[in-house]
Design brief:
Largest sheet: 6 strands, mixed
Strand order of the largest sheet: 9-6-12-11-13-14
Radius of gyration: 32 Å
CATH class of the largest domain: Alpha Beta
Helix content: 40-55%
Number of domains: 3
CATH architecture of the largest domain: 3-Layer(aba) Sandwich
Shape: elongated
Number of strands: 16
Amino acid sequence: MLISKYEGSRSFQTGTPGKQRPQFAMKKSPLAGDYFDEMDHRKREAIHAALAELAAAGVVEVTWPRFQEGRQVEKVYLNFDAIPRAYELAGLVPRAERICRLRQVLAPLATHPWEWVRRWWAGVDASLGERRSAGLDLEDPEGYGELVKVLLALPELEDIIPERVFSQRVLGDSKAFEQRVKKRLLALLKSYGPEEYETDAEYLDSVGLTDNPKMVLVAGLMTFRVGETHFRLDELSGGLGLSPLTVRSMKIMGVPARWILIVENLTTYYQVVQEVYNFTPVGLVIYSGGFPHRGVQRFLNRLKEYLETMGSTRPPVYHWGDIDYGGIRIFEYIKRNFFPYLQPYLMDVITYERSLETGISFSDKYAAKLAKLAADPACASWHPLLEAMLKHRKWIEQESMHFFPPDLSNEAGQSL
């Protein structure tokens, strides 16, 4: 009790004894119930004996009300000079030592290659340097040691890797990551990571971890080779699922498409592919899966590199997603990281207002997130749509909108 009061005091934070010693009044202490138990005076006697022993050792000073000395304790004070002895008697590691140990555990992150990790470390280290816990569990240095191992290993990943394989490789136990590190890593990513994602899986994927590797789904006009073997994607009427290893080793040889469309949701992707293959394929369709996972990112980079060689003959690139907070942010992510010339498809005011009957109402909290987007100069092109959404208080699922084959219809609110 007295040690806790000391550790929460200004004296502990500064390392210099203050004018007021850690103390408690017996009547207001957790001991009061036993101390003032009239049915069992042995409890008080035992407390008196323990306090007498501590006082004789110079650890505490006990004060008594006038004329009640030896009968009823008034206050108990912890002597600053005896604090090391108090920790020893309590069987506790001094808080200052626990903080110092944790600083040493986290120190390797000072030179981490990711800026957001260094930023988190700097804030935590500064707090620990001021003898504050920074919200960390000082009793679990081993757990933070595992977190450090994970954070140091992540930048070395060249491809996405299953969590259990990564855990076995880095922590020597296939379940250790999920059981002891995953929760802490997700908390860091959500508070300090460079992007805001919709799901835990997307946060983990952003650093190269997955429950199972995911395929890259693509259909339409594209030729590529793997090794010496050439493939024509348009010969496969349902498109193709490419493994991360295939994407890494493939080389795009041609994109004779009139347009390229990146589709956010899986159901819509299949609908678009079926619609496109009902006629002579003229476009290239790619499934992003929300925020693109590592495999899709690698494929988009391959595609971007090829399109740069096409110059003025490059086909336009579009993204079609939900008309909502996430859909707009996914579009901006793909535009910022892959295609600066990316354009939205069926994500305009006309399409939105035509689809209001199928819209889903949203809360004030959600509206505040949209308003924050509207205030961002980087999202200026979205202002008309955001204003309409804030007016009608609805967002639109991509699945509720109809896909118009771009080369066959101009009825869409925004056509390719």
